[in-house]
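User: Hey, my collaborator sent me this sequence without any context and asked if I could get a structure. I don't really work with proteins. Can you help?
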Amino acid sequence: MEDQKATLLIVEDDLDIAEMLDAYFRVQGYNVLTANWGEDGVRLCNSSHPDLVILDIRLPDIDGFAVAERLRSNRRTGDIPIIFLTERRERNDRLRGLSLQAEDYITKPFDIQELRLRVRNALHSSKRGALTNPVTSFPQGMLVKERLDVVLKETGWSLVVVSLDHLDHFREVYGFVASDDLMRAVSLMLEEVHKVLGGEEDFLGHLTPNDFLLITRPERTSVIIERITQRLEKSLRYFYRDQDRNAEIFTERELQVHIESLATDPGEIPDMQALQQKLTRLHR
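Assistant: No problem. I've predicted the 3D structure and written it out in structure-token form, which is a compact way to encode the shape of the chain:
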């Protein structure tokens, strides 16, 4: 049994899924609360303060994004970890969810064992302050926020965000273990580029669990982006099974490197949430 005293809130309007998750996580030793409406989920968070929320986006009244926004804006509920569990697969939806500081974004249909491990990891990260990513060991959470709080007030810095398009589809086909192996391999490649081309004052960490953040100087940005793109594009194909590539399982949804860079300008981007929201707009 894992985290036996932890309380989970499941906000899901599909009664079959809600009942299945309720029964499953109770067997795992969790206390479980359920809500089928967004407003009920907000009220339960305020009254019971669960340790983690599993949140659907499509709800009968207010959507899951609105629920998350309400929770994040309230001092009492602002620190509750959220895992989105939804049918919405579009990149913009995932980025919007992560911009609300969600711990994870899992699409349906989902692997119940994977969800269990994601819940466990999110709870453990929450307890230790989420200072390092459990997969890559890169800084995240408060460590990244502290660095951003400094550089966003200064000129002369460049923020480079590296992510992989279609990572969710890769995870759906190969599972969370292969996905985590992929993220570890990507982190090692980024670390190598960082050591070779970066400066001593540069910083490498996670903006979100699936997105890497490199803080460097503008004069180094273009060559770093070029090297990262070359390394990753050359390596990503080796994570597929040959028969899957030949069967065109990943046609139009192959892993692709996506890199955004922004120069800092004091006052233009006040905090990490504003940065994530700006990156979301860039993808639209």
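In plain terms: The radius of gyration is 19 Å. You can pass these tokens on to your collaborator as they are.
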